Amino acid sequence: MKSITRFIGSSVLSLLTLLLLLAAAMPVFAADADFKTVSSEVLRDMLEEKRVFTLVDARTNDEYQVAHLVNAISIPDKEFDKNIALLPRDKGALIVFYCNGVKCGKSKKVAAKAREAGYTNLTVYADGFPVWEEKGYPIVAGPEYAKKIETTKFTPAQLKQILAEKKDAYVLVDVRDEFEFAEGHIEGAINIPAETFAAKSGVLPKGKGIIVYCNSGGRSYSAYRKLMKLAYPSIFQSILAEWKEAGFPVVKSKL
């Protein structure tokens, strides 16, 4: 009987210990929870209606200077402590954070630091600057915004060799319209039209090289710039017209 009593007592003690450990762990889980998010359209309406909130650009200062959302203030992750005074005194005031899209973690990092500082009404604009810009919503552009960039290009011969020997290390993206893609594209390519490229870029892995192409270079140049803003580390451009001129084949697909 005594052994049973000891067993029950030991079990209860173990259960209480487990409950205490879980209770201690709960704040950690809460701290890691995702933040509320806001869509591009809702954020646009908030700005147009002049709602009272603080909009925080969590990207680098250089990126902020090139272009940023209207009314945004710059608080990069590594400079949070230095710039915390820019946040409202009211710890319950609404603050919206953004960076360079769904694969950019800077907005959540800065929001987490704001939460640690006691702020409670925090929201993340997950689509970020590239999608906002793509939708044609208002931005503040600096003198470097329209500066032309030099893309890294693959010749038709280089692209053909890559597709034959290293295709698993790259993703080939046709940025033309869907009907153009159906009429003839490079085999193995996926289709993400340039007009919605940033919004749909989440399917592209950052661990691979991304090759964008269009007929003559204009739309793939635009997609290339968007990939840069989305912080893709390995980006390349090719031209479909040159591919065809080299005598290389295209394949058709159904709409």
UniProtKB/TrEMBL annotation:
CDD domains: RHOD. InterPro entries: GlpE_sulfurtransferase, Rhodanese-like_dom. Keywords: Signal. The keyword Signal applies. It comes from the Bacteria. Residues 1-30 form the signal peptide. Pfam families: Rhodanese (PF00581). Residues 49-141, 166-252 form the Rhodanese domain. This is Rhodanese-like domain-containing protein.
